[in-house]
Amino acid sequence: MSVSGQVPHQCFIAKLPAETLSKIFMLVVHGSLKRRETYEIAPQSATMPDSLALVNRHWRRAALSHTSLWSTLTVDLYKMVSNKSGVGWTWLATMIRRSGRSSVDITIKAQQGAASGCEGRRRCRDFTPTMCRYADCMPAVFNLLFPEMYRWRSLDIVSDTWMPLCSALYLLNDRRTEGSGAHRLESIKLVRTNDTLSFFWNFCPRFIQTVEGTPFAALMGADLQDVPAQSPHLPKLRNIVLYGVHLNWTAFHLSTLLGATPTQSLTPFRHCIRSLELSHHSGEVRPTFDEFLGILKACSRLQHLVLRASGPLPGRPSYQVSLPLLQRLHYEFPQVGDPAELFGGFQAPNLIKLSIGESYVRKQLTYEDDDDDDDDDDDEDGPANSLLRYCATHRPFPNLQELSLNRITAPVEAFSLFLASVPTLRHLSLLGTPKALRALAPVQDPLTGSGVPCPDLESIQIF
Asked: Are 348 and 323 in contact (CB under 8 A)?
């Protein structure tokens, strides 16, 4: 029996059950579950819910009834300042209302549109009228967000200059007198998108270098005195990224990470952080060695550590911190200091993946395009030479399986000693490090005969 084409029928997509639509919408808006577990926010998650709600009435009802669909709150100050009609503020309030009681991911963008990223050329760009307006907008933004703090899942603040971040930090460091804390918060990411900042020893702008208050005190809530001594202030916090953003390091590890307050001692349930990144800090605002070790000690369950043109000031560690769960380490040498001293400050016996290299800021000062790979004399005094020899002597990573060397300048002998000390290595990646490849050649040992470094090596990538 054929069906006439003139018989009216409803489009199939308008008949999908609300439960099925909700699952489809979540995949479209937020992407895979793995992305959410790594605190990566899908680019379309802020705008796609509105697009889905405009398809038809059935889809709109399904979208508006699913509060998790609206859980990405993106505040673009460039658009909000440029639009004088106030549409941006209305939209933010609407998104907050539609998200209901769902956990929310917050991103605040304070970048100068297409003109961003030029602070390295003109460091005075912190004082442009645009940046001042962004900084002035921060209190209004947080006035909308603070009442929903108990629902925050992640907080990202991105700016290419310091003033908006400084304004945000003053608000986040100011202890609140009412409201609950950010008990669902899992990730904090503060980013100043100018990598060349670590080129300079002096921090700029100098007159607003220090942000007073306890780091993230506002997130701990006003009922701090009522919190049991055994309870951490931010119980779900797992990921912290400080990219070009510095804090009061002593207060950071004592109050934020360890949970000490004027009325409470250190809590035993303080080891929450799983991933920590410190990147691109000017020399004078980096932590001292004791402050840095205090941060690591407060993160004894750390699994992933990134130090990119940052880390402690030059010095020798007074003790070693044990990081038995650390599996991944990415380290780029800062402009000053001996990286071997850093590795002497902690133990990571179960490290699986290691990536080391010189930051591009340092390479701008020291790198020359030299085709003579046999000249090792210039490499003897380099930081990479001492680091490789330290690792060969002390073997801090006995279970290392994956190694990436990025533009490392050191003698072939140092590479040979280092690679011979990691017999468990299975995967090697080399970027602009040709001498390391030569160190993999078979060696003749008078006692044991011929030998091949890294006998379990399965793959080599060369870039």
From this structure: yes
Model confidence at 165, pLDDT cuts 50, 70, 90, reads very high
**Cα angle 157, 163, 165; round to 5:** 20
Q: What angle do CA 82, 87, 92 make, to 5 degrees?
A: 105
Q: Report the candidate in 170, 182, 258, 178 with the shortest Cα–Cα distance to residue 219.
A: 182
Taking alpha carbons only, the member of 301, 328, 296 closest to residue 312 is: 296
CA distances from 93 to 141, 152, 158, 295, 410 (A): 10, 15, 21, 37, 56
Tell how strand 449-451 and strand 443-445 pair up. Answer: antiparallel
Q: Virtual CA dihedral for 61, 66, 67, 70, nearest 10 degrees?
A: -80
Q: Average pLDDT of 72-83? A: 85
What is residue 173's three-state secondary structure? helix
Whole-number Å distance between alpha carbons of 220 and 226: 12
* pLDDT tens per residue across span 19-36: 777 777 777 776 655 555
Tell me which H or E stretch contains 6: none
* Cα–Cα distance, 403 to 356 (Å, whole number): 8
| Residue 147 to residue 179: CA distance in whole angstroms | 7
Contact 134, 82 (CB under 8 A): no
The reported pTM is 0.85
DSSP state for residue 37 in the 8-state scheme:
H
**SS3 at position 249:** helix
| CA distances from residue 106 to 38, 112, 324, 328 in whole angstroms, order as listed | 15, 19, 32, 27
Using the CB atoms, write b or e for 283-306: b if 16+ within 10 Å. Answer: bebbbebbbbbbbbbbbeebbbbb
Tell me what pLDDT residue 231 has.
52
Task: Yes or no: say if 186 and 268 are a contact pair by the CB < 8 Å rule.
Answer: no
